[in-house]
Design brief:
The chain has about 240 residues and is an alpha/beta fold. The chain has a single domain, classed as Rossmann fold, CATH 3.40.50.720. Helices cover about 40% and strands about 20% of the residues. Keywords: Oxidoreductase. One of its GO terms (biological process) is fatty acid biosynthetic process. One of its GO terms (molecular function) is oxidoreductase activity, acting on the CH-OH group of donors, NAD or NADP as acceptor. This is NAD(P)-dependent dehydrogenase (Short-subunit alcohol dehydrogenase family).
């Protein structure tokens, strides 16, 4: 099998990350390296010769460099997508620094540490594409989501700065900001809130909440050569949430 592209995906065991992995492995010229914690959730992907699962907990940010050295030392990537994310609903009065740091560790700090390693020439090709999953809530905010909104906003600033820094190698860095997408993370959220609030959130999306497949084709475009002049941008895909 002749591999032309290697793509690294975090959060590959569920939601948008898994949907993206399922899409990309259909191209036999692409090898997908999926980072996640629960191998049981991706049994359907393990049958693909061009899918490599890396069992890793992104809370262990200090071990990411060793992950590259031990498992990815001979790989040069043409794409990276940070889909892993932690979300919780909690009023500011109950928030602690430790809880905020937990959210930032997965949503932001792990992405920074992965890119710190991935941006080295030994791990990435010139003209590679790095994509960070932010959220419309990174710009618009939402009550009870201080940690989540702040972390997703941080990704926007990270992407803009990084896009300028890596432009000398023509590496593109962009954010994709979905609205509410029907993922296990969203389902968990909906279980925590009253039905009235759930209906209100769904109603904030004029054409309804999304499915993972509504997002992954945009990411596929950003990974490809047809988006070679697109960098430092935040692309919203939210069913109209942000235009009201």
């Amino acid at each position: 099998m002749s591999i032309k592209k290697n793509i690294l995906i975090t959060g590959a065991t569920s939601g948008i990350g898994k949907a993206l992995a399922c899409l990309l492995v259909k191209d036999l010229n692409t090898c997908v390296y999926g980072i996640g914690r629960d191998e049981e959730k991706i049994q359907d992907l393990l049958g693909y010769e061009n899918f490599i699962f890396l069992k890793f907990d992104l809370f262990k940010v200090e071990e990411i460099e060793e992950l590259f050295k031990s498992s990815l030392g001979d790989i040069k990537f043409s794409g990276f997508v940070h889909c892993a994310g932690l979300e919780e609903t909690l009023p500011i009065g109950l928030y602690t620094v430790d809880r905020v740091q937990q959210v930032f560790t997965v949503n932001v700090f792990s992405a920074i540490e992965i890119v710190r390693n991935l941006s080295k020439k030994k791990y990435s090709l010139d003209q590679a594409s790095f994509i960070l999953l932010s959220s419309v809530m990174g710009e618009l905010g939402q009550p009870g989501k201080i940690g989540y909104c702040a972390s997703k906003s941080a990704l926007l600033g990270f992407a803009r700065s990084l896009a300028l820094e890596l432009a000398k190698r023509k590496i593109r860095v962009n954010c994709v900001s979905p609205g509410i997408v029907d993922t296990p993370l969203t389902q968990k959220l909906f279980q925590q809130i009253e039905e009235e609030n759930k209906s209100r959130i769904v109603g904030m999306h004029p054409i309804g909440i999304g499915e993972p497949n509504d997002v992954v084709y945009l990411i596929e475009y950003l990974l490809g050569d047809k988006s070679k002049w697109l960098t430092g941008q935040n692309i919203k895909i939210d069913g109209g949430y942000s235009i009201q």
